Amino acid sequence: MHVNPYYEKLPGNYLFAEIARRVKAYSAAHPDADIIKLGIGDVTRPLAPAVVNAMKKAADEMLAPATFHGYGPDYGYEFLIDAIREKDYAPRGVALAADEVFISDGAKTDTSAIQELFAPDARIAVTDPVYPVYVDSNAMAGRLGDFTDGRWNRLTYLPCNAENGFVPEPPKEPVDVIYLCYPNNPTGTTLTAAQLTPFVEYARKYGALIVYDAAYKAFITSQVPHSIYEVPGAREVAIECCSFSKTAGFTGVRCAYSVIPHEVTGIGGNGQRVELNALWKRRMGSKFNGVSYPVQRAAEAVFSPEGQAQCAEAVRYYRENAALIRRELQTAGYEVFGGVDAPYVWMKTPTDSWAFFDRLLDQAHVVGTPGAGFGPSGEGYFRLTAFNTREKTAQALERIRRL
Ligand code: PLP
Asked: At how many degrees (to 10) do helices 49-61 and 293-302 cross?
């Protein structure tokens, strides 16, 4: 058995594994260090009572033969799909058919698996810096060429930096797929409808696909789209991935959803148009057996009036943490970005980003994420997350200020 040769081209560790390795080594050498983690994007607030009650009720149903649930529908239960259509999309003027929404166990699952629908030689573009999953999944499939000097030589990078105000330009060369994530991880920045429009126009003009990751849409307070479908013409060229992870604290529960409108097509072997919706159904049928019934009931409860209010409360808590991080960093003289419509604050570092990581760990016992880990344009920046408790966040910022 020969292993997949493309795995051997992957650079070192997955970013967060490398961070965990460094933190573990530091803790082992300094057992008394009280380390505060503002690194990985995991939530800390407990689940909403409405969500847990729904989960318990569904678990009880599993006790009785009449209400027991075995395998569910391949693409998700109708009750959850309808809640998403009616409570999430319809209020924004986006009408979706029931079979355009797919329930899954994570936006990581979906954003990494979607590339299975692309031709082996499809050209990919990502904003840079970027959530590493889009890049790694395409690299594993052999689409990105070789990784040298911190770059894949067959990947189009769309730089987002302080110089361009974190507004990327559409690709200069022809690409088949563009991954966009707004509110953005890692920069915490957003794009307005007017700033997204050139991407939709590019995709329509060149027959490209947009994979839009809206995992952080619950954090939006500014006048920016919550969905790519709020941009005219996007229905024909974009699919959208959403998650309950950050909206409702489901990182350990696991539930997400993707939207694939029927209008979105690719070119088949005979030059005919093929619906990605049909391909995704085919894939789900072969590779996925659904999210558990209690979890889908729990996700449905996120859209109940109590669920909405309780989840919004947790999001507000994180948003206030983000505001605190922004404020404190600015007071300390750092240049900061993002953190208004997102749980991430992106700061400029005085040194290279891994050196800043090591210094912060060593001198402040604070863990963040080096920008270089998110792509070449991430160098010189650093990401702090708002997901820790208020107390720990305040304590971490106090230490950073004293640096
Ligand atoms: N998409 C982005 C941009 C993320 O930052 C994350 C998690 O950090 C995910 C997707 C993963 O979401 P899920 O927990 O639904 O797999």
From this structure: 150
pLDDT in tens, 258-277: 999 999 999 999 999 999 99
> What's the pTM value of the predicted model, to 2 decimals?
0.97
Confidence of residue 15 (pLDDT cuts 50, 70, 90): confident
Q: Give the torsion through C-alpha atoms of 222, 378, 40, 147, to 10 deg.
A: 130
Ligand 1 centroid, distance to 403 Cα (angstroms): 31
CB contact burial 70-87 (16+ within 10 A = b; e otherwise): eebeebbbeebbebbbeb
Our answer on whether the CB atom of 106 is closer than 6 Å to any ligand 1 atom is yes
If we measure between CA atoms, which residue out of 268, 243, 266 comes closest to residue 343? 243
pLDDT for residue 17:
85
CA of 116 to the centre of ligand 1 (A): 18
pLDDT digits (tens, 9 = 90+) for 169-214: 999 999 999 999 999 999 999 999 999 999 999 999 999 999 999 9
Q: Which of 21, 38, 103 has its CA nearest to residue 365? A: 38
Residue 29 contacts by C-beta under 8 Å, 6 or more apart in sequence?
none
- Mean predicted lDDT score pLDDT of the chain: 97
281, with CB counted inside 10 A (0-12, 13-18, 19+), is middle
Phi, psi of 357 (to 5 degrees): -60, -50
Task: In whole angstroms, give the CA distance from residue 182 to residue 228.
Answer: 9
What is the CA(269)–ligand 1 centre distance, in A? 33
Domains and CATH numbers, the chain: 7-46+308-402 (3.90.1150.10), 52-305 (3.40.640.10)
107 lines ligand 1 (CB under 6 A): yes
